Amino acid sequence: MHWELKKIGGTYDGKMSKDGSEITGDWKQGDQSLPLVFKRLEKAPELNRSQEPKKPYPYREQEVEFANKKAGIILAGTLTLPRARDHSRRSC
User: Could you write out the three-class secondary structure of 11-59?
Assistant: First the structure.
């Protein structure tokens, strides 16, 4: 198979394995050529994305509320703060 990405000047030429589990070929861009293999996976790998943090977080959380009695509303949210530092090991 042949793929061409004209905007970036790249091409890929590869062949699919008999069982259809992978494509082996070469990526070419400019004067560079590199081997590139695509493999079929059972499940996509789990990515470490900062916008989707997983516990334990590198910060502490505190739920907060502010009541505005005059307006009859409550503003609530999660306050995130740096973890408390150990001040017993200060260097001078």
Answer: EEEEEECCCCCEEEEEEEECCEEEEEEEECCCCCCCCCCCCCCCCCCCE
Q: Which two tokens stand for residue 51?
A: 């916008």
The three-class DSSP label of residue 7 is helix
Q: Tell me the two tokens of residue 67.
A: 């009541």
The dihedral of CA 91, 83, 51, 46: what is its sign? positive
Q: Where are the domains of the chain?
A: 2-39, 59-84
Over the chain (92 residues), what is each successive 10-residue block's mean pLDDT?
97 97 97 97 89 86 96 96 71 55
